[in-house]
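Dear Dr. V.,

Thank you for agreeing to look over these. As mentioned in my earlier message, I'm a first-year student in the group and I'm still getting used to reading structure tokens, so any feedback on how I've presented them would be very welcome. I ran two proteins. I've put each sequence directly above its structure. The first is here:
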Amino acid sequence: MNETSAPLTGMRFSKGHGTGNDFVLVADPDGERSISPEQIAALCDRRRGIGGDGLIRAVRSRHVPEGVELLADNPTAEWFMDYNNGDGSRSEMCGNGVRVFVHFLITQGLVSLEAGEELTIGTRAGIKVVSRTDAGYRVDMGPWDFIHPEARQSGSDSLVNVVGLPVERPALSITMGNPHTVVALADLDELASTNLNEAPVVTPVPPYGTNVEFAVPAQPLVTDDVGHISMRVHERGVGETLSCGTGACAAAAATRFWAGSEAPDVWAVTVPGGVVGVRFFPGPDGREHVELSGPAVIVADGVLA
């Protein structure tokens, strides 16, 4: 580690992932630890640090201003997922990270959750309800929406230029509590040729930047009432990742919208790190919600030297 992380000597951490989307996790129940953006970037560095797409700090909601606000209406949300991207920048939340966060709480003995039980947690994108399943976890990600509502008419609201594709592509901007820009590609060859080592250029770009998903609908799109797409993603503040949970939800939402009223509510999204499930359902607030399902794994525990 470099000198910026010296004050973190002795800090315990875990390393976990959800379909290859990997994180450094730190338990700080009483909100006593401050980790700077520079320290987060050092910890997430894949050559000089532990390596990860982001850092998740597990803290009780009452110790975080955003968590205190959520507790007013959601007193059972004891735990808050404090998430930062791998470059140290703060993010609203991470769909794969939510599953890994809850699995981390369980493995640390901070909560008990059996298959079929639910846990309510706080994030900067609001309350998330997580259910444990035999195969992993499923998360009510809350409602999805268009960033630009007028896009309902045209089906696109921006253009994306990316290395590897010869021309700009139309895209649709979706919010999952964090911003996404979804591009539909014709086939898997186009998907493979897309170079995500450099950030795609989005015009116009949302105010706080955006994650960019490139999605290929399967042929046929629907099998046994399940829609299928393949996806790659460039995450703001990170680069290309093996998986993005909110990105999978956004890509499924955009593809479902483009497919029309007969499109299914259940989707399987193949990412480089595996497959996640996405389901659309009526939420308790009267809006359409999105459920994300998939595995979560803790691969290592350690102490900073």
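The second protein is here, in the same arrangement:
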Amino acid sequence: MKQENYIKGMIMIILSAFFFACMNVSVRLAGNLPSVEKSFFRNLVAAVFAAVILCKDHTLPKVNKKYWGPLILRCVCGTMGILCNFYAIDHLLVADASILNKLSPFFAIIFSFLLLKEKISPTQAVCVALAFVGCLFVVKPGFHNAEFMSALIGVCGGLGAGIAYTMVRVLGTHGVKGPIIVFYFSVFSCLSVIPWMVFHFTPMTVKQFAILMMAGLFAAGGQFTITAAYTYAPAGKISIFDYSQIIFATLLGFFLFGEVPDKYSFTGYALIILASFGTFIYNMKTASKKVTAKKSPD
């Protein structure tokens, strides 16, 4: 891989982390609207973007019946992940909600083992355990913690995203294109909350609507830049930079809302990022061994 492409990939994934941090902040700035309503408009923008891309490429959103199961599971769990993440953003520090959502790669490792029968190495197992210890520092379980349930819902958001990403992996390896997956997921997410919206719709101001549209645009920007990042460089070599979102979220939370995470949260951030770094190093070594094996004579 060319050094130039590696740098481009790194820049793109850091840019995507910034966009997603801005999306989270926009969700908070939208005020006291229900999380379901916020997710509807965020996904509506994503659905429109995906539809435009499919139309531009003259691609029909067809998926072989054999893969409807993984697609439905991706849609259901992805919707659960977004709803839980948005709820956590509204009730926790932006940085705390962001790091809990970043547990998704570790859930993906677990569900790749359970659903795809992929082996978990001892190194991966240690990293997963370390990540969940870090999660405990952020969640701070205990009856004295009024935010415990909100944090637990945030963890469920990471769980839903982890299953969803596992299904994206299944679909991607069978040739289902990214825009098609995004289109079905976004449309499903919108349709699934319409019954709730009909009976519980909360009127919003023009400002709130504009902010939610911005959240959708930031989300779309994040999706496009992270896709571009992985076209320049493999995930194993640049995924660690995705955790720069925590830095952006912490800074935005401080300057916009005066939020300062406590020492336990910072400890949790450090442990989760350390676990991610360990996974990153492991993936790099594994990829290097595979390349060496291919080059070696039979």
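From my reading of the second output: The mean pLDDT is 87. The CA atoms of residues 29 and 245 lie 18 Å apart. Does that match how you would interpret it?

Kind regards,
E.
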